[in-house]
Amino acid sequence: MNQKQFLLGMTLAEITESMMELGLPKFTGKQVADWVYVKRVKQIDEMTNISLKNRILLSEKFNIGRSEPLDIQRSVDGTCKMLFKTDSGKFIETVTIPEEDRLTICISSQVGCKMNCDFCMTGKQGFHDNLSTTEILNQVYSVPDSEKITNLVFMGMGEPLDNYKNVQRAMELLQAEYGLGWSPRRITLSTIGLPSNLKRFLDESKCHLAISLHNPISEERLAIMPIEKSAPSASVIEMLREYDWSHQRRLSFEYIMFDGVNDTLLYARELIKLLAGLDCRINLIRFHVIPMSSLKPSTDENMVRFRDFLTAKGFITTIRASRGEDIFAACGMLSTAKLIV
């Protein structure tokens, strides 16, 4: 028995072609895409402008591809963390972060991660699977208050550029006119910088980019981020200099601050040297203590001093508010290691 295809994750052209292969009129493709991407139906039976006969035919070949979260945890600050099960029986976590006039969703791109950064729980659980485009989009469509999402960040589990094909396809579908029609300015991809796929992203997308830097000194970055050996931050930044960041697309650098490791003004000065001339902003992030890592969070005083020094040198620098720490939903804390057998 052939496995049913998922409609969520297919382009309008692919849906239309599939409808015509079933002997349905060409315009059925637009109807189906509208039901899936705009009206957000969960079942083919809900497509009421398609005849019952044709809905039965569709149901024999297709599923929407939607699945509800298995568990929802709510933080005292309003942050929500959802647990989703993948099609292969594995698990991922997704976070929504409410603010006054915004709802940001932080989505995952992989089950686990290959990068093994010392400060990240996802990396500590190892790599288990890439998410399909359907599984990436399902997070957007199936979280509570999905219709209220204003911004999306690929900052959940996994390295997005290590699953570039499916991530890029999901971004394109979110921006498609027949879909949600999002502006690329609503989407940010966060990466440690895999050069070949980073170049593809820069050439093929207008979405915002956030680079996980965390230490401006190469040998010291290598001690907490193994990727520094094969993709040195200096070479990644040289690639970024080839692109124009003065218009719509925004470039930012993520910098988690660790006590006694990277939080003195020595590192601020090295950061200024490394990023000199780049039109960018810097986000300072509080470290959240995780098992299996000896790193500790920097003090508030050191973070403020670091920020003020960079600001005085002309860099737009902010200390990112910490959200969802009480439910392990904060930066670097997502993991489903206990659920992986």
Question: Care to describe what's here?
Answer:
The model has no long low-confidence stretch (mean pLDDT 93). It is built from 12 helices and 14 strands. Helix 1 packs across helix 2, helix 5 crosses helix 6 (164-175) and helix 11 runs parallel beside helix 12. It is elongated and about 70 Å long. The protein has helices at residues 12-21, 27-38, 52-61, 121-124, 133-142, 164-175, 195-204, 218-224, 227-230, 233-240, 265-275, 300-312, and strands at residues 5-6, 62-63, 71-74, 80-85, 91-98, 103-106, 110-112, 127-130, 151-154, 187-191, 208-212, 251-257, 281-286, 316-319. The chain has 2 domains: 5-63, DNA polymerase, domain 1; 71-339, TIM Barrel, CATH 3.20.20. Strands 3-4-5-6-9-10-11-12-13-14 form a 10-stranded mixed sheet, with helices on one face. The protein has a two-stranded parallel ribbon with strand order 1-2. The longest helix has 13 residues, at 300-312. By secondary structure, the chain is an alpha/beta fold.
CATH H-level superfamily title of the largest domain? Aldolase class I
Number of helices: 12
Helix content: 25-40%
CATH topology of the largest domain: TIM Barrel
> Strands of the largest sheet, in order across it?
3-4-5-6-9-10-11-12-13-14
CATH architecture heading of the largest domain? Alpha-Beta Barrel
Catalogue the unreliable spans.
Answer: none
Radius of gyration in whole Å, from Cα?
21 Å
What is the string of SSEs from the N terminus onward?
Answer: EHHHEEEEEEHEHEHEHEHHHEHEHE
SS elements, strand count = 14
Mean pLDDT: 93
